[in-house]
Each structure stands twice: as C-alpha cells, then as structure tokens.
Amino acid sequence: MLAENLRRARAERGLSLSELSRRSKIGKATLSQLEAGAGNPTIETVFSLSRALEVPISDLLDNERPNGLTVVRAADVEVLSGAAVDLRPLRGIESGDAIVEVYDQQVRTDSRQDSLGHVGTEHTIVQAGRLGVRVDGREVELGPGDYVGFDGLLPHSYTALDGPVRSVLLLQYRADQRLHSAKAGPACLAETP
Q1: Which residue of 61, 75, 93, 181 has the lowest C-beta tally within 10 Å?
Q2: What is the mean pLDDT of each run of 10 residues along the chain (193 residues)?
C-alpha cells in the first residue's frame, strides 16, 4: 500500500523523485524502491515522508476506512520498527475536521527514537514503564498513566529509561492534510524550517 500511496502523493504535489529526496532526506534509490513496492521502510522513513509530503502517516500506509465494529488483532498488524520504537497501527478515526491515528507503541530498553518532526499533533499516554521525552530541547519523564502532547513538527525523541515502555500514541491531523483531500495540493506543501 505504501508504494501506491507514495506515488499518488508525489504526483498530486507535482514533486519529482529528486525533490522528494531533498525534502525528506531519503535517497532517490530508496524512494524508487519504495514506489516499486520493493522496500521495507522504517519508522524514520515513513515519518520523513509524512513530513515532506505533509500528509498523515496512515495516508501513506493504508486507505481502508473501517465502519461499524472494528477489532484489531496484534498478530494481524504489521509492525513498523525504528531505531528504538515498534509501532502497530490500530485505527484511524475521522470526526469533522480532525483525524486521529491510534498506535500501540513500544519503546525498547536502552535505546532512543529520534524524530526530526512530522505533520500533526502527537499525544502519548504511558501504560507501563518510564519514558523520557525530549521535545525541542525540553525534557520530561513520564510514568504509567502520564500524558504528553506536542506539535509533531518539533524535533523530538523517546527513550525507555529503565526497561521497555508500552504506550498509546495518538497522531492528530487536520482533515485538509489528508492525501485524498481535494484541498491537499501543491499549495499545501510549504517548506518548514
């Protein structure tokens, strides 16, 4: 699904592979492989593409919008892994002008997941363990039941402080940031510092 969605998003924005490579800091060869369906992207790659194309992550990974009763079995969901984090996409929820993606997030012991930033607002609720969160130079420590929220465009990182951390990650977007939105065109793709 990533290959099809990536090609479509790039075409809708009128971007060449070279321009997307420059904006995402991902090599042209890697982008070409991803568009051909031959790559296995990491969290870092998908978040970089989300940032460069200014679309929700779920728009790159899936098109299905489930209705009615939704059950997501852990064994049925492909895990998106990064340097320190494993994400399982659970559900995308649309309500009015807002979209919220729900992820099961696990941060591995003795590792840090860095992000240069991406579109949307990031919300994390710790379920188990102690999580170090750094956002734009500010650091906080969270325990079970604690919450943090911040602008996803800011550079940020997650660190498991003394063992693995289990948390719920919510990514919140505006509806006009959707890949399939009529409003999402070249004018929406402003460079962010």
Answers
A1: 75
A2: 84 90 90 85 85 81 62 84 91 84 93 90 97 96 97 95 96 78 33 28
Q: What is the pTM of this model?
A: 0.68
Instruction: Specify the domain boundaries for CATH 2.60.120.10 within the chain.
Output: 74-174
Q: Tokens 């982008």 belong to which residue?
A: 31
18 phi and psi angles, rounded to 5 deg: -60, -45
Sheet holding 98-107, edge to edge: 80-81, 85-95, 98-107, 165-174, 121-128, 147-151
Which residue, among 162, 103, 83, 106, has the nearest Cα to 130 in the 3D structure?
Answer: 162
Name the CATH superfamily for 74-174: Jelly Rolls (2.60.120.10)
